[in-house]
Specification:
six-stranded antiparallel sheet, 24% strand, five-stranded antiparallel sheet, elongated, 456 residues, 20 strands, ibrinogen binding protein from staphylococcus aureus fold, alpha+beta, 9 helices
Length: 456
């Protein structure tokens, strides 16, 4: 990826030109993989950096994000300890993958790459302990061994690469970038491709699972239909019992009779508590059900073959797709399980065997809340109006693919549906309550966990 020593050198040079003498205004995160750092640069212009973590790898990007008062309600304020502190110096090691922003009051903010272990850390100068970290999952960063950086206040663009490979070729560039704008363009192209491949893989996985399920249904239906066709007809067995009724003594559990259809002697099971005619009626009843079952199986085979054909075509289209536009027509593979009546407060979806409810309006959101169980998973697009979404509990854990699917539904059924990335709250239903005298659809949350929905 972009975790290469000279990449950090380019960013360090950019930071040195703009930040030294400037002021750190604050940091905020809206999800576990994105952190915004805002500065007032040395020309008194706002300068915002987006720290994006992709599978743990740190990507630095310029951002147009402007902080406002409502942000503290939407996200989590980070590194509040150094707000309004002046940037004294930018440190960088041309042989390593980190940038250190040195503030007044002896504080330092570290951006470390280190491959999949990227993070942003805050410490006080001269202390070995870490004061706070962004990616809390990297517990070892609390004891991070900070390198000696005093000799690297100046960036060195001609420093040798730690890696010998030509990474820029894999980024779609014909030569090593000398301008930060070229590097940023390559990073943005990478992000677009990353999210495209992620969506493509998810659609492929969903369709392959659906095709496997449909093939299983088709095979079982055909097998069952074949078994019914090959075994002895219940109607014929009823006819044989009636034909030999005069010879069948009461209390028999089975009888050996001549089968006039084949001229063979066969055994027929009987209920000893029933008369011969009643035993025959019992077989005629089974024959009636048998006909109904055959009709249902035949109908099911027709429908399943149609769905299987359509799903295989969709899978072929997904595999051939080269961009988000090519995937768009297949995004609706999240088909509804069944048509719901107008009285149902939700639209029902199914994914990987999990039922997912999507509220129709504010009042139905409240109804859906009452119908759900405490360990169901509740989702809602963060800080915008939209439908409540509930994943019904099934098994000990909720698969991430199911959560992503439901988050996508929450985002698409909200006022944020035109955004590319939508933060979605996902918490257990027991942490969601309806305040007294609250407006329809309004709820109170005891905690918030955020997942990102990518709408492409």
């Amino acid at each position: 990826m972009f975790s290469v020593n000279w990449v950090y050198g380019m960013w360090a040079e950019e930071f040195r030109c703009k930040m030294i003498g400037g002021i750190f205004k604050g940091a905020i995160s809206f999800d576990k993989d994105t952190l915004f750092l805002q500065f007032v640069d040395n020309k008194r212009n706002n300068f915002t950096i987006e720290c994006k973590f992709i599978d743990g790898h740190l990507l630095l990007l310029p951002s147009d994000k402007e902080f406002d008062r409502s942000d503290s309600k939407k996200g989590i304020i980070q590194f509040k300890e150094v707000e309004n502190y002046t940037v004294n110096q930018i440190y960088y090691d041309p042989f390593d993958r980190w940038i250190c922003i040195d503030f007044s009051h002896d504080f330092q903010l570290w951006m470390k790459g280190f491959g999949k272990f990227g993070n942003v850390l805050l410490r006080q100068k001269g202390e070995s302990e870490t004061h706070s970290i962004f990616r809390l999952s990297l517990k070892s960063d609390w004891e991070f061994q900070y390198p000696n950086f005093e000799l690297h206040a100046e960036t060195k663009s001609d420093a040798p690469d730690v890696k010998s490979g030509q990474e820029w070729l894999a980024w779609g560039l014909s030569e090593k970038p000398t301008q930060l704008s070229s590097l940023v363009a390559a990073q943005l192209n990478f992000l677009r491709e990353h999210y495209f491949q992620k969506n493509k893989a998810q659609l492929k996985e969903n369709l392959e699972r659906k095709i496997k399920h449909l093939r299983k249904i088709l095979n079982e239906s055909k097998k069952r239909l074949s078994e019914i066709g090959e075994r002895r007809s219940y109607k014929e067995l009823g006819d044989l019992i009636l034909a030999h009724a005069h010879a069948l003594k009461p209390g028999l559990s089975k009888a050996l009779i001549t089968d006039y259809y084949t001229d063979q002697r066969i055994w027929i099971k009987l209920n000893p508590e029933l008369s011969a005619s009643d035993n025959a009626k019992k077989y005629y009843g089974k024959a009636k059900n048998e006909v109904i079952e055959q009709k249902k199986l035949q109908d099911q085979i027709i429908v399943t073959e149609k769905n299987l054909f359509e799903s295989e075509l969709k899978l072929e289209g997904v595999l051939l797709a080269q961009d988000f536009k090519g995937l768009k027509s297949f995004q609706k593979t999240m088909t509804k399980v069944q048509a719901q009546s107008d009285t149902a407060p939700y639209r029902l979806y199914e994914h990987q065997g999990y039922q997912i409810w999507v509220g129709k309006n504010n009042k139905s959101n409240d109804q859906m809340l009452r119908l759900s169980q405490k360990n169901d998973l509740w989702l809602h697009a963060k800080d915008v109006a939209g439908s409540h979404v509930i994943i019904r509990k099934k098994g000990p854990n909720y698969p991430q693919a199911v959560i992503d699917f439901a988050a996508n539904l929450a985002a698409k059924n909200s006022k944020a549906k035109t955004q590319n990335v939508v933060p979605v709250i996902a918490v257990l239903r027991k942490f969601v309550s309806k305040p007294k005298n609250a407006a329809p659809g309004e709820v109170s949350l005891q905690k918030e966990d955020i997942v990102d929905a990518f709408l492409g």
